[in-house]
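ok so I'm stuck.
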Amino acid sequence: MRHRSPLLAAATVALALVVTGCTSTTAPNGQNPPSSSNDPYAAHIVQPGFEEPGGNVNVLMSSDFMTLDPGNSNYVQTANVGQLYYRTLTMAKETAGQPPTIVADLATDTGTASEDGLTWTYTLKDGLTYEDGTPITSADIKYGVARTFARDVYTQAPQELNSALDADTYKGPYSDGELTAVETPDDKTIVFHLKQPNPDFASLVSRSNTAPVPEAKDTKLDYTSHPMSSGPYMIDSYDRGRELKLVRNPHWDAATDENRTALPDTFTFSLSTAQATISQQLISDADPTAITLDSNGALQASDTARLTDTAIADRTASGLLGCTDVLNFNTETITDPEIRHALALAMDRAAIQVQYGGARFGKLTNSYLNDAQVGYVEETTDLDIDGAPQLDAAKKLLEGKDVPATLTYGYSNAIDRYKNLGTVLQQNLKDLGIDLQLVPIPAANYYTVLASDEMPDIARAGWCGGAASGSTRTTVDPNIGPSLDGTTFGFSNISRFYDDELSAEMYELRNTNGTSEELNTQWAELYNEAMESYPIVPLIRTFTNSVVGSKIHNAQVGYFFGSIDLSAIGVEQ
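replied:
not stuck anymore, here's the structure
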């Protein structure tokens, strides 16, 4: 998530993200990325301006959602579909090709900070109800936040909000009772107590932590089967791994929600369609009401040439994302930073880019951060990786080292390019005398496995979290930062990076006062220092092309979601 704003005391703030890139209705053409006068990665919205309600959108997906529980979701796919059935205090509102803007959602505004910046207060709008007609209360939002602290239950709960609250030792409502860092003086008021002033706080409450959950309906891990809807749609049926159907929530009041158009009557998600089939169906317009949320629009390398066809280009939503793919080294199994550096030098990142579809689908990057983020600084670390492998330099680093004979690379089994990426790495590491074994991981469990003791030596991951708030912290802290108490690596820190000195500085930085620019610059500087030990290897900043059916309108690629923004689309009947 991203934002820039100085600390605003005792004021209501509307945090707007820095506008980068531009939008265009010009379709992509040629073999290179789509171009405008000066932006090779301009956005394209398919058939904008549609306002007719009705119809069904058929969403083709290669695998099921990892979860539908807003309290257990650190995934952009769940956040995308989630905006249809749950609402949060604030919302990251997408605009094609630009970082999103933080706007009020369940709350009347984006929040009021106390004079000392240590509390933020929100007031709920009138007329908010669940799918069963019962009112949404501030206590439900507090409970939704509280349950995300139960990390023994919810292994993938987002933690950026939690790390800002004065609640480092809280373990969730099931074992620790009430969350005292959040107060609800009445049914419409919720007050957050922070460890230190946080100028980006309004963006933190746009995350799924603040989706309301009535305590009486909490079924823990089973809540994913039917979370209570506070949004325009609710779950009609859910056959895991096969199909999910959303229908209109009769108790949603459009007068309280200016952010979601809610044009279609229904959404049907097919959850086990092979990516090659999705790609062919969308290219051929076999189902004019179809879209996909799969990354890169599920397009196969053999189909990308078709994007130059005018008829298909007109149906292709595209945009440069705030999302970056990286390779994570398991620093608990590959403990020597120089060995990790050597592995990075040996990688043929240009060949890896080809597996993503070439320059049309993203550009090589040497950083998890990008220059649209508040606090971004040019990499001070001498990341001497480039597109081509540097085998001589890699071999020199390995001289005299206890080099592992075998390493493992884990990949999501639903996406061919991630396996193909592994094949490239396999050849690269073979040149170093290392046998890289490819380990398929079921897509629905992928990030759960990466967070477990079964984490392989190397694994691909992507992060869009920095896109919604505009701050470097919301990329750095989750991915290489420490745990809430600062004693070990953070729960979504896939590489398990923990350095006594740097991690302690990150922990202290969470408790440091300053402006958004000042604090996020320090996060970027600590990121650059951490990268000297190569816990991760940045790969691709994603440019997504997603073909949609000919009856789909208002299709834009969400900068944060990395796929078609479900809150905006419509469909002809």
